[in-house]
Design brief:
This protein has about 425 residues and is of the alpha+beta class. The chain is built from 12 helices and 17 strands. The strands form 7 sheets. The chain has a 4-stranded mixed sheet with strand order 10-11-17-14. Strands 1-9-8 form a 3-stranded mixed sheet. It is elongated. The N and C termini lie far apart (about 90 Å). About 25% of the residues are buried. Bound molecules: zinc ion (2 copies). The site of one zinc ion has 7 residues, from loops. GO terms for molecular function: ATP binding; Hsp70 protein binding; unfolded protein binding; zinc ion binding.
Length: about 425
């Protein structure tokens, strides 16, 4: 039985553990306690260091044997006795392959002036961003214990300085880095859990059990304001966990717009598609074409005498997204008109001769006729597929027209379209054909 089991305890293994067990335990713990994974735990970096140091000793059969025999004292004279942070940083730089920035994780000494901020992704619908919304949510956080005001002590009891670490909250351990090299690492005092002082069980605050903080369930309200951009951060200042002696960090909600079935947003503009029939394309329409994000029906009438061609789009001025902070100012709503061709069933039900006499005439054969003319069978094909194969742009080649218009921060494109294609002094913003 080893004289000291502290290092085994750190890794959560019994002193009888095999090399493999130790390795596994360390891997698991290191993952769990990695400072990058525990941004809200100020102790994470320290825990991580301790485990790394313990593993370093226990994974080497020679140093493990020395430790088992005589504890930390058995691990040799060390490279320079207890030093300052320099030694420890040096040691850990070696552990982490030159990663001397290890101490930047925020633990291990540097005092923070404010608690850690917490960023929470928050999904919002386009409807919420259009109409605005107040959201109430239940949250849990650590707050200073109201009974002991954060001292952790019962009544006026004062904590006693920890004898083990002489009030510093940390101790040195010596570790073997290589067969002939030893280092000194600073590790959190296990006697006082890094506090530097200790309270007897009976002197601890009953409410927080000496922990200084207690968990509080709160109800927070955040406001999704009209027109907030995607990625907007709503900050609840000081709503993070409280710790004695430093102001609490913030809780930040980062908005992420969820996919919408019919509308796409580009800044303050909106885009949607509307299907019209062939009859409507030729003879015009006057009907409710969309249900807007606030539930309103939007009626549009096409100007008399205008034929709508495939790919034509119209602009509904002022029907776009509200501008954040100025919700009365709205962008525009662009509608791409998709023309639905009638199906063959319809064709069977009409008099084709009468139809032909109504429609513009068919194209005549080529003139002059090429010398050789082959008759080739008619087969349906998928042109999108063919293009996808020959263009490195990929299968979304045909979508790129929209992708570039609706890519992020592409509002300028819209402004250009504005002037060139849609505005017409006489039309007052009504649908207008593109110039040829
Ligand atoms: Zn308390
Ligand atoms: Zn101590």
């Amino acid at each position: 039985m080893p004289v000291d089991t502290e290092l085994y305890d750190l890794l959560g293994v019994p002193p009888s553990a095999s090399e493999d067990d130790i390795k596994k335990a360390y891997r698991k713990k290191a993952k769990e306690h990695h400072p990058a994974k525990n941004p809200n735990d100020p102790q994470a970096a320290q825990k991580f260091q301790e485990m790394a140091a313990a593993y370093e000793i226990l994974s080497d059969p020679e140093s493990r044997a020395l430790y088992n025999e005589s504890g930390m004292a058995g691990l040799g004279p060390g490279s320079g006795g207890p030093g300052g942070m320099g030694d420890a940083a040096d040691l850990f730089a070696q552990f982490f392959g030159g990663g001397a920035t290890f101490f930047d994780f925020g633990g291990g000494g540097a005092r923070r002036h404010k608690g850690q901020d917490t960023e929470v992704p928050y999904d919002v619908t386009l409807e919420d961003l259009y109409n605005g919304k107040s959201v109430k949510m239940n949250m849990e956080r650590e707050i200073i214990c109201s009974t002991c005001q954060g001292s952790g002590a019962r009544g006026s009891t004062k904590p006693k300085e920890c004898v083990h670490c002489e009030g510093k909250g940390w101790t040195f351990i010596q570790t073997q880095i290589a067969a002939s090299r030893y280092g000194t690492a600073r590790t959190k005092c296990t006697e006082c859990n890094g506090q530097g002082s200790k309270l007897k069980e009976k002197d601890r605050c009953k409410k927080c059990k000496g922990e200084k903080t207690v968990e509080e369930k709160t109800r927070q309200e955040i406001f999704i304001e009209k027109g907030m951009p995607d990625g907007h951060r709503i900050v609840l200042a000081g709503a993070g966990d409280q710790q004695p002696g430093i102001p609490a960090g913030d809780v930040i909600f980062k908005l992420k717009t969820t996919h919408h079935e019919s509308f796409e947003r580009s800044g303050s503009n909106l885009l949607t598609n509307v299907k019209i029939t062939l009859s409507e394309a030729l003879l015009g329409f006057s009907r409710i074409v969309i249900k807007h994000l606030d539930g309103r029906g939007i009626r549009v009438s096409s100007p008399p005498g205008r034929i709508i061609r495939p790919g034509d789009s119209i602009k509904l001025r002022g029907e776009g997204m509200p501008t954040h902070k100025h919700p009365d100012q709205k962008g525009d709503l662009f509608i791409v008109l998709d023309i639905e061709m009638p199906d063959s069933q319809w064709l069977q039900s009409v008099n084709k001769q009468a139809l032909e006499s109504l429609l513009p005439s068919k194209k005549p054969d080529m003139d002059p006729m090429p010398e050789i003319v082959d008759e080739v069978p008619y087969e349906e094909g998928d042109i999108v597929d063919v293009r996808a194969r020959s263009f490195p742009a990929g299968s979304d080649f045909f979508d790129q027209g929209f992708a570039s218009q609706f890519g992020e921060g592409d509002e300028d494109d819209w402004e250009d379209d504005d002037g060139d294609d849609y505005d017409n002094d006489n039309m007052g913003g009504e649908p207008e054909c593109r110039p040829q």
